[in-house]
User: Fold this.
Amino acid sequence: GIILDSSHIDDIEKAIQQAKQNRRKKKTAKMKVRPNALFMPLDYYSTLLPDPTANYYLWDRVVSVRSGGSVPLGTRGTIIGVHKTKGLIQGETEVVFEVLFDESFPGALTLRSSPN
Assistant:
């Protein structure tokens, strides 16, 4: 597979921490918004398949859009590894992405990143 080395992963983690600190410094604004502009029904997320024509590469930013999966809905991360594995059907291969998420969550694995 293709993976980022540990120095690049450290750089991503530092950038994420810096972005989190910058987010805390921002001012918030209050405004009135109609509820239908904020709420999107989640009934359809769990039944949608990812776009089969989309290509993903190292360094791409991704977001979890599936509710009820092992990764919480809305969790953002960076692709740090692309691995080809044997598929369920003989002769097929599938691609598995290694993602460094911005936030830790229950059930997350620490493979090649810091524990936090």
